[in-house]
Amino acid sequence: MARLSPHALIRTVAFAAGIAIAGSAAAVDSIKMMIPANPGGGWDTTGRELGKAMLASGAVKNMQYDNKGGAAGAIGLAQFVSASKGDPNALMMGGMVMIGGTIQNKSAVTMDQVTPIARLTSEFEVVVVPANSPIKDLKDLMAKFKADPGSISWGGGSAGGTDHILAGLLAKEVGIEPGKVNYVPFKGGGEAVAAIIGGHVSAGISGVSEFAQHIQSGKMRALGVSSASRVANIPTMKEQGFNVELANWRGIFGAPGITKEQQAALIKAVEAGAKSKSWEETLQRQDWTAFWLPGEQYGAFIQAETKRIGEILAGLKLGKK
Hints:
Elements: H1 6-27, E1 30-35, H2 42-57, E2 62-67, H3 74-83, E3 90-95, H4 96-104, E4 115-130, H5 138-147, E5 153-156, H6 162-173, E6 182-185, H7 189-197, E7 203-207, H8 208-216, E8 220-225, E9 247-254, H9 260-274, H10 277-286, E10 289-294, H11 295-316
Parallel strand pairs: 1-2, 1-3, 5-6, 5-7
Antiparallel strand pairs: 3-9, 4-7, 4-8, 4-9, 4-10
Protein backbone atom coordinates (compact mmCIF):
# COMPACT_ATOMS: atom_id res chain seq x y z
CA MET A 1 0.00 0.00 0.00
CA ALA A 2 1.46 3.39 -1.03
CA ARG A 3 2.30 5.73 1.82
CA LEU A 4 1.11 9.33 1.65
CA SER A 5 3.55 12.18 2.10
CA PRO A 6 2.91 14.40 5.14
CA HIS A 7 1.47 17.15 2.93
CA ALA A 8 -0.77 14.70 1.06
CA LEU A 9 -1.91 13.21 4.36
CA ILE A 10 -2.85 16.65 5.70
CA ARG A 11 -4.78 17.42 2.51
CA THR A 12 -6.58 14.05 2.73
CA VAL A 13 -7.52 14.53 6.38
CA ALA A 14 -8.69 18.09 5.69
CA PHE A 15 -10.77 16.90 2.73
CA ALA A 16 -12.37 14.13 4.82
CA ALA A 17 -13.09 16.57 7.64
CA GLY A 18 -14.61 18.96 5.12
CA ILE A 19 -16.97 16.22 3.93
CA ALA A 20 -17.97 15.42 7.53
CA ILE A 21 -18.56 19.09 8.33
CA ALA A 22 -20.45 19.67 5.11
CA GLY A 23 -22.59 16.60 5.76
CA SER A 24 -23.39 17.76 9.28
CA ALA A 25 -24.16 21.30 8.13
CA ALA A 26 -26.42 20.07 5.37
CA ALA A 27 -28.58 18.23 7.91
CA VAL A 28 -29.36 21.53 9.66
CA ASP A 29 -28.84 23.96 6.79
CA SER A 30 -32.46 25.08 6.98
CA ILE A 31 -34.71 24.40 9.97
CA LYS A 32 -38.49 24.69 10.03
CA MET A 33 -39.75 25.01 13.59
CA MET A 34 -43.30 24.13 14.59
CA ILE A 35 -44.54 26.37 17.40
CA PRO A 36 -47.75 24.71 18.64
CA ALA A 37 -49.24 27.93 20.01
CA ASN A 38 -50.43 31.29 18.75
CA PRO A 39 -47.95 34.21 18.53
CA GLY A 40 -47.07 36.09 21.69
CA GLY A 41 -46.87 33.29 24.25
CA GLY A 42 -44.04 31.46 26.00
CA TRP A 43 -43.49 28.77 23.37
CA ASP A 44 -43.47 31.37 20.61
CA THR A 45 -40.92 33.52 22.43
CA THR A 46 -38.75 30.53 23.37
CA GLY A 47 -38.80 29.07 19.85
CA ARG A 48 -37.96 32.32 18.10
CA GLU A 49 -35.25 33.24 20.61
CA LEU A 50 -33.71 29.78 20.23
CA GLY A 51 -33.82 30.14 16.45
CA LYS A 52 -32.10 33.52 16.72
CA ALA A 53 -29.41 31.99 18.94
CA MET A 54 -28.86 29.06 16.56
CA LEU A 55 -28.46 31.50 13.67
CA ALA A 56 -26.09 33.67 15.71
CA SER A 57 -23.96 30.64 16.59
CA GLY A 58 -23.63 29.67 12.93
CA ALA A 59 -25.17 26.25 13.57
CA VAL A 60 -28.08 26.99 11.24
CA LYS A 61 -28.22 29.13 8.10
CA ASN A 62 -31.96 29.64 7.81
CA MET A 63 -34.91 29.37 10.22
CA GLN A 64 -38.62 29.26 9.42
CA TYR A 65 -41.49 29.19 11.91
CA ASP A 66 -45.01 27.79 11.75
CA ASN A 67 -47.49 28.69 14.51
CA LYS A 68 -50.37 26.28 15.08
CA GLY A 69 -52.21 26.95 18.34
CA GLY A 70 -54.93 25.08 20.20
CA ALA A 71 -55.56 22.30 22.73
CA ALA A 72 -52.43 23.07 24.78
CA GLY A 73 -50.21 22.19 21.85
CA ALA A 74 -51.97 18.95 20.94
CA ILE A 75 -53.11 20.30 17.55
CA GLY A 76 -49.61 21.44 16.57
CA LEU A 77 -48.15 18.18 17.86
CA ALA A 78 -50.54 16.14 15.71
CA GLN A 79 -49.68 18.18 12.62
CA PHE A 80 -45.95 17.90 13.31
CA VAL A 81 -46.11 14.12 13.71
CA SER A 82 -48.18 13.75 10.55
CA ALA A 83 -46.32 16.16 8.26
CA SER A 84 -42.71 15.92 9.43
CA LYS A 85 -42.07 12.19 9.81
CA GLY A 86 -38.46 11.39 8.94
CA ASP A 87 -37.56 15.06 8.31
CA PRO A 88 -34.10 15.79 9.80
CA ASN A 89 -34.63 19.54 9.35
CA ALA A 90 -37.78 19.85 11.47
CA LEU A 91 -38.03 20.96 15.10
CA MET A 92 -40.97 21.54 17.43
CA MET A 93 -41.25 23.54 20.64
CA GLY A 94 -43.01 21.93 23.59
CA GLY A 95 -42.98 21.51 27.32
CA MET A 96 -44.88 20.72 30.46
CA VAL A 97 -48.08 22.30 29.12
CA MET A 98 -48.14 19.94 26.14
CA ILE A 99 -48.08 16.88 28.39
CA GLY A 100 -51.13 18.20 30.22
CA GLY A 101 -52.77 19.04 26.91
CA THR A 102 -52.42 15.55 25.47
CA ILE A 103 -53.78 14.04 28.69
CA GLN A 104 -56.69 16.49 28.95
CA ASN A 105 -57.65 16.17 25.30
CA LYS A 106 -57.18 12.38 25.27
CA SER A 107 -54.96 12.93 22.26
CA ALA A 108 -54.21 10.00 19.97
CA VAL A 109 -50.82 11.60 19.31
CA THR A 110 -48.48 11.82 22.30
CA MET A 111 -45.01 13.15 23.01
CA ASP A 112 -43.42 9.71 22.90
CA GLN A 113 -43.95 9.84 19.11
CA VAL A 114 -41.49 12.69 18.58
CA THR A 115 -37.71 12.60 18.98
CA PRO A 116 -36.31 14.21 22.16
CA ILE A 117 -33.64 16.80 21.35
CA ALA A 118 -33.13 18.94 24.47
CA ARG A 119 -34.82 20.39 27.53
CA LEU A 120 -33.99 24.09 27.55
CA THR A 121 -35.49 26.26 30.26
CA SER A 122 -37.39 26.36 33.50
CA GLU A 123 -39.61 29.26 34.45
CA PHE A 124 -41.77 30.12 37.42
CA GLU A 125 -45.38 31.27 37.24
CA VAL A 126 -46.75 34.63 38.33
CA VAL A 127 -50.29 35.66 39.33
CA VAL A 128 -51.28 39.14 38.15
CA VAL A 129 -54.28 41.46 38.12
CA PRO A 130 -54.94 44.52 35.93
CA ALA A 131 -53.41 47.69 37.33
CA ASN A 132 -56.81 49.18 38.14
CA SER A 133 -58.01 46.10 40.04
CA PRO A 134 -59.23 46.65 43.62
CA ILE A 135 -57.25 43.50 44.54
CA LYS A 136 -53.94 44.72 45.98
CA ASP A 137 -52.07 41.55 46.95
CA LEU A 138 -52.26 37.75 46.90
CA LYS A 139 -53.84 37.54 50.36
CA ASP A 140 -56.62 39.82 49.19
CA LEU A 141 -57.20 37.73 46.05
CA MET A 142 -57.23 34.45 47.96
CA ALA A 143 -59.62 35.81 50.59
CA LYS A 144 -62.11 36.78 47.88
CA PHE A 145 -61.55 33.44 46.14
CA LYS A 146 -62.17 31.47 49.33
CA ALA A 147 -65.31 33.44 50.15
CA ASP A 148 -66.83 32.94 46.69
CA PRO A 149 -64.80 30.70 44.31
CA GLY A 150 -66.99 31.41 41.29
CA SER A 151 -66.60 35.17 41.61
CA ILE A 152 -62.91 34.98 40.71
CA SER A 153 -62.09 34.14 37.09
CA TRP A 154 -58.54 32.99 36.33
CA GLY A 155 -57.17 33.61 32.84
CA GLY A 156 -54.30 31.53 31.52
CA GLY A 157 -53.14 29.06 28.89
CA SER A 158 -54.95 25.96 27.72
CA ALA A 159 -56.98 23.81 30.12
CA GLY A 160 -54.81 21.33 31.98
CA GLY A 161 -51.61 23.31 31.44
CA THR A 162 -49.22 24.78 33.99
CA ASP A 163 -51.36 27.87 34.56
CA HIS A 164 -54.46 25.76 35.22
CA ILE A 165 -52.53 23.44 37.52
CA LEU A 166 -51.30 26.43 39.56
CA ALA A 167 -54.87 27.73 39.95
CA GLY A 168 -55.86 24.27 41.18
CA LEU A 169 -52.97 24.10 43.64
CA LEU A 170 -53.88 27.53 45.03
CA ALA A 171 -57.49 26.39 45.39
CA LYS A 172 -56.41 23.27 47.22
CA GLU A 173 -54.18 25.36 49.50
CA VAL A 174 -57.19 27.32 50.83
CA GLY A 175 -59.53 24.34 51.01
CA ILE A 176 -61.47 24.85 47.77
CA GLU A 177 -62.31 21.91 45.51
CA PRO A 178 -60.07 22.54 42.46
CA GLY A 179 -62.91 21.61 40.13
CA LYS A 180 -64.69 24.79 41.30
CA VAL A 181 -61.98 27.01 39.83
CA ASN A 182 -63.53 29.41 37.29
CA TYR A 183 -60.73 28.98 34.76
CA VAL A 184 -60.75 30.79 31.38
CA PRO A 185 -58.28 29.25 28.90
CA PHE A 186 -56.70 31.20 26.05
CA LYS A 187 -54.97 29.82 22.95
CA GLY A 188 -52.13 32.34 23.01
CA GLY A 189 -50.34 34.80 25.25
CA GLY A 190 -51.58 37.80 23.28
CA GLU A 191 -55.23 36.90 23.90
CA ALA A 192 -54.59 36.32 27.61
CA VAL A 193 -52.78 39.65 28.02
CA ALA A 194 -55.60 41.57 26.34
CA ALA A 195 -58.22 39.89 28.53
CA ILE A 196 -56.29 40.55 31.74
CA ILE A 197 -55.45 44.19 31.02
CA GLY A 198 -59.00 44.75 29.81
CA GLY A 199 -60.42 43.38 33.07
CA HIS A 200 -62.29 40.53 31.40
CA VAL A 201 -60.87 38.12 34.00
CA SER A 202 -60.19 38.75 37.69
CA ALA A 203 -56.61 37.48 37.63
CA GLY A 204 -54.10 36.06 35.18
CA ILE A 205 -51.51 33.31 35.45
CA SER A 206 -48.51 32.71 33.22
CA GLY A 207 -44.73 32.48 33.13
CA VAL A 208 -42.93 35.55 34.47
CA SER A 209 -41.49 36.40 31.04
CA GLU A 210 -44.89 36.57 29.36
CA PHE A 211 -46.14 39.28 31.72
CA ALA A 212 -42.82 41.00 32.55
CA GLN A 213 -43.14 43.94 30.15
CA HIS A 214 -46.73 44.60 31.23
CA ILE A 215 -45.76 44.48 34.90
CA GLN A 216 -42.86 46.85 34.25
CA SER A 217 -45.05 49.23 32.23
CA GLY A 218 -47.59 49.36 35.06
CA LYS A 219 -50.45 47.76 33.12
CA MET A 220 -50.45 44.71 35.42
CA ARG A 221 -49.86 44.26 39.14
CA ALA A 222 -47.86 41.16 40.11
CA LEU A 223 -49.27 39.46 43.23
CA GLY A 224 -47.05 36.42 43.69
CA VAL A 225 -44.54 34.13 42.03
CA SER A 226 -44.47 30.32 42.35
CA SER A 227 -40.77 30.06 43.22
CA ALA A 228 -38.81 29.41 46.40
CA SER A 229 -37.22 32.87 46.23
CA ARG A 230 -38.24 36.14 44.64
CA VAL A 231 -38.03 36.59 40.86
CA ALA A 232 -37.86 40.15 39.51
CA ASN A 233 -38.52 41.19 43.14
CA ILE A 234 -42.03 39.72 43.03
CA PRO A 235 -43.05 38.30 46.44
CA THR A 236 -43.26 34.51 46.52
CA MET A 237 -46.48 32.71 47.31
CA LYS A 238 -44.76 30.98 50.20
CA GLU A 239 -43.69 34.20 51.90
CA GLN A 240 -47.32 35.33 51.74
CA GLY A 241 -48.52 32.21 53.54
CA PHE A 242 -49.45 29.94 50.62
CA ASN A 243 -47.34 26.79 50.41
CA VAL A 244 -47.35 26.50 46.62
CA GLU A 245 -44.33 26.14 44.35
CA LEU A 246 -44.40 25.23 40.64
CA ALA A 247 -41.94 25.51 37.75
CA ASN A 248 -42.76 25.28 34.05
CA TRP A 249 -40.16 23.79 31.67
CA ARG A 250 -39.80 24.05 27.90
CA GLY A 251 -37.85 22.01 25.40
CA ILE A 252 -37.34 21.14 21.76
CA PHE A 253 -38.15 18.01 19.75
CA GLY A 254 -37.25 16.50 16.40
CA ALA A 255 -39.54 14.70 13.99
CA PRO A 256 -40.60 11.07 14.37
CA GLY A 257 -38.52 8.50 12.55
CA ILE A 258 -35.22 10.35 12.19
CA THR A 259 -31.97 8.41 12.62
CA LYS A 260 -29.69 8.55 15.67
CA GLU A 261 -27.15 10.44 13.54
CA GLN A 262 -29.77 13.01 12.54
CA GLN A 263 -30.88 13.34 16.16
CA ALA A 264 -27.26 13.92 17.21
CA ALA A 265 -26.84 16.61 14.54
CA LEU A 266 -29.92 18.45 15.80
CA ILE A 267 -28.75 18.18 19.42
CA LYS A 268 -25.38 19.62 18.37
CA ALA A 269 -27.04 22.53 16.54
CA VAL A 270 -29.38 23.31 19.44
CA GLU A 271 -26.52 23.05 21.93
CA ALA A 272 -24.48 25.53 19.88
CA GLY A 273 -27.39 27.96 20.13
CA ALA A 274 -27.82 27.28 23.85
CA LYS A 275 -24.13 28.09 24.45
CA SER A 276 -24.25 31.34 22.49
CA LYS A 277 -24.12 34.85 23.91
CA SER A 278 -27.49 35.50 22.27
CA TRP A 279 -29.15 32.75 24.33
CA GLU A 280 -27.39 33.82 27.52
CA GLU A 281 -28.79 37.32 27.03
CA THR A 282 -32.25 35.86 26.39
CA LEU A 283 -32.17 33.88 29.64
CA GLN A 284 -31.27 37.01 31.59
CA ARG A 285 -33.80 39.21 29.83
CA GLN A 286 -36.67 36.73 30.20
CA ASP A 287 -35.81 35.61 33.75
CA TRP A 288 -35.52 32.01 32.52
CA THR A 289 -33.35 29.39 34.22
CA ALA A 290 -31.16 27.19 32.02
CA PHE A 291 -32.41 23.59 32.34
CA TRP A 292 -30.31 21.73 29.77
CA LEU A 293 -30.85 18.01 29.29
CA PRO A 294 -30.17 16.39 25.90
CA GLY A 295 -31.28 13.37 23.92
CA GLU A 296 -32.28 10.14 25.61
CA GLN A 297 -31.94 11.64 29.10
CA TYR A 298 -34.55 14.17 28.03
CA GLY A 299 -36.70 11.35 26.69
CA ALA A 300 -36.58 9.59 30.08
CA PHE A 301 -37.48 12.87 31.78
CA ILE A 302 -40.53 13.23 29.48
CA GLN A 303 -41.75 9.75 30.47
CA ALA A 304 -41.40 10.58 34.17
CA GLU A 305 -43.14 13.94 33.71
CA THR A 306 -46.04 12.33 31.84
CA LYS A 307 -46.65 10.05 34.82
CA ARG A 308 -46.26 12.88 37.37
CA ILE A 309 -48.50 15.37 35.57
CA GLY A 310 -51.12 12.71 34.91
CA GLU A 311 -51.29 12.02 38.64
CA ILE A 312 -51.52 15.76 39.47
CA LEU A 313 -54.36 16.30 37.00
CA ALA A 314 -56.24 13.26 38.29
CA GLY A 315 -55.81 14.37 41.89
CA LEU A 316 -56.90 17.93 41.19
CA LYS A 317 -59.76 16.79 38.92
CA LEU A 318 -58.82 19.37 36.32
CA GLY A 319 -60.83 17.88 33.48
CA LYS A 320 -62.13 19.62 30.38
CA LYS A 321 -65.21 21.74 31.08
